[in-house]
Write a structure and sequence with these properties.
The complex is a heterodimer of chains A (about 425) and B (about 140). Chain A is built from 16 helices and 13 strands. Chain A is an alpha/beta fold and about 425 residues long. In chain B, about 20% of the residues lie in helices and about 35% in strands. The chains are: A alpha/beta (about 425), B alpha/beta (about 140).
């Protein structure tokens, strides 16, 4: 891999031992990818503070310097972690102090994470604590090279914003934060951003939040790790709908980039999305829609719902408002709990707007920082949960060993109030 | 004597030999493996419940969350890692995962490793070649 003079200086220690270890990791990673060179970035989204058993052990042995060296730089050296070289944010992590008494989550993890936030905050890390940095001010520009992890954020940045990032990991984002460099490979290159599969929506119109999620789940199952182009009978989507679509496509497959001609910025037409010949379209119609719905609901058998989870990926302010409007004057069943996961910045605005008071009066909760899948934490005794998120319906049964129902926001709120699932595909 | 030699592109330098564990389906890290035990935990996966510790893991690709590499790094730190990786199609997740697991790894082979190699075969990775001895 070609290295610039600055890359070589960092590798050789001119910017300190930690930057040298970071460059060593980037060189090993670039070799593994067969990348020709590194590119410069000024926007890193990674994870440092999320508690884990290995991290707790490393912090006990040698503090956060040791934890960052081993986990975020893949280095065995005894390093002192300096200021982040480029703007770097912390994605979603564990639950925080205000979740104690609500979420069954180890107090030791809460304390470890608070300690980590203080350490990394002093080194310049922005503790956004959300899987949706693009909802709280981190909006990379079109064409901007970034180093992001979190599959649902990566697909949003690439597809909706037209930024350029691979689905990075903990060590590559750690190394990027101390060097401002990342391998120029995959989604960073023009030649790797065109469409590979064409999906045509026919016989139905995709316009609801639920339908955008199901279409995303279908697109991921068709395209796998490649790049679907979606056309046909589509209403104008908004941020929340493409947030749901992308998270679902990155869950059923490994999609990191898609195009919706006329909607997303990089493909003005189907022809522009495919520089060569346009492939035959895979049709998404009523039968395919029904099949996705049944796949997402195949884990559900008992209709007794004891947990309703909204906000995956983290809810927008308007999703919190919609939930509040549906819960106004109603009461969550004594046998059920309702949690809405949100970025902390938006939870503050929801509180100021009065939505949180309405939700809490009904017995629901607005929670920040994490989610049940990240923290492996749900209300005690949960056996059956309901969600409006295709991603969470896919993952949570495997992670927590519980049943899942997938439906609309209205069906989920109704399940919370009655304690019974009564959803169906309309 | 090996029965078959595959040629590919080296991902992580080094030589290693051992028994193959072959997955025909992509492997998830986060939500797909338990790094404390080195076991595949994804329900409905063909290798559900199977331990990869000490094996040469042969798989078509990495899928799912960007936590992939971190979970495989944890297998190294927990002593439950595979000893080598043969990767059908490389991605950022599996490339970084192989690097931080620090085991010899190879990709872009001249035949599909998941069809040529079977679980239990004896496999030797030597930088850019894979020697397969059928069991």
């Amino acid at each position: 891999m070609y290295l610039t003079d600055d890359d070589k200086r960092m590798r050789d220690g001119a910017e300190g031992d930690a930057a040298a270890a970071a460059m060593d990791l980037l060189i090993r990673y670039g070799y593994a990818l067969d990348a020709e060179r590194l590119c410069s970035i000024r926007n890193v989204a990674g994870t440092m503070t999320q508690p884990s058993p290995v991290k707790a052990r490393l912090v006990a042995e040698g503090g956060w310097d040791k934890a960052f060296s081993v986990i975020n730089l893949d280095s065995d050296r005894d390093l002192t972690i300096p200021q982040m070289r480029v703007p770097t944010c912390q994605l979603q992590h564990g639950f925080g102090p205000d979740s104690v008494d609500i979420v069954p989550y180890p107090r030791a993890n809460v304390d470890l994470q608070s300690d980590g936030e203080a350490f990394y905050g002093r080194r310049g890390v922005q503790i956004l604590a959300t899987c949706t940095p693009y909802q709280v001010g981190n909006l990379p520009m079109r064409g901007e090279h970034c180093a992001w992890m979190e599959s649902s954020a990566v697909i949003y940045a690439n597809s909706v914003l037209g930024a350029r990032t691979n689905c990075e990991g903990i060590a590559s984002t750690g190394a990027a934060s101390l060097t401002g460099r990342i391998p120029c490979w995959g989604n960073h290159l023009d030649a790797s951003r065109h469409g590979t599969h064409l999906i045509a929506v026919d016989g139905i119109t995709v316009e609801s939040f639920q339908d955008w999620g199901m279409l995303g789940y279908f697109a991921g199952s068709v395209a796998g790790e490649d790049r679907p182009v979606v056309t046909g009978s589509l209403a104008q989507p908004d941020l929340t709908e493409l947030k749901h679509f992308g998270a679902a496509a990155a869950t059923s497959g490994g999609v990191e980039l898609y195009h919706i001609p006329g909607i997303t910025p990089e493909a003005v037409s189907v022809e522009a999305a495919f520089p060569g010949s346009v492939p035959d379209a895979v049709v998404y119609g009523p039968a395919e829609r029904r099949a996705v719905y049944e796949t997402l609901n195949e884990i559900g058998s008992s209709a007794d719902v004891d947990f309703v989870l909204l906000g995956c990926p983290h809810a927008s302010l308007d999703q919190i408002r919609q939930a509040a409007a549906l819960l106004d004057g109603r009461r969550v069943s004594a046998n059920c709990e309702l949690w809405i996961m949100a970025p902390r910045a938006l939870a503050v605005m929801a509180e100021r707007s009065g939505y949180t008071a309405v939700i809490e009066r009904a017995g629901g909760r607005v929670l920040a920082d994490s989610c049940p899948a990240m923290s492996r934490a749900a209300p005690a005794g949960t056996k059956v949960f309901a969600t409006d998120s295709a991603k969470q319906a896919h993952y949570l049964p495997a992670i927590l060993g519980i049943e899942a129902w997938f439906g609309t926001l209205e069906e989920c709120v109704s399940a919370a109030v009655t304690g019974r699932w009564n959803g169906g595909l309309s | 004597m090996s029965d078959r030699v595959l040629h590919g592109r080296n991902v992580v330098p080094g030589s290693v030999e051992g028994q193959a564990l072959v997955s025909h389906e992509p492997i998830s890290g986060w939500g797909g493996i338990d790094p404390a035990r080195g076991v595949i935990i994804e329900p409905r996966h063909e290798l559900f419940g199977v331990c990869f510790t000490g094996k040469i893991l042969v798989f078509p690709s990495a899928k799912g969350s960007s936590g992939w590499s971190g979970f495989f790094q944890t297998t190294r730190l927990s002593g439950t890692a595979p000893i080598g990786m043969v990767i059908g199609r490389i991605s950022a997740k599996s490339a970084l995962g192989a690097v931080v697991t620090r085991v010899p790894a190879i990709t872009d082979l001249d035949a599909d490793p998941c069809s040529v190699i079977a679980t239990g075969d004896w496999v030797r990775i030597d930088n850019s070649t894979v020697e397969v001895t059928k069991r």
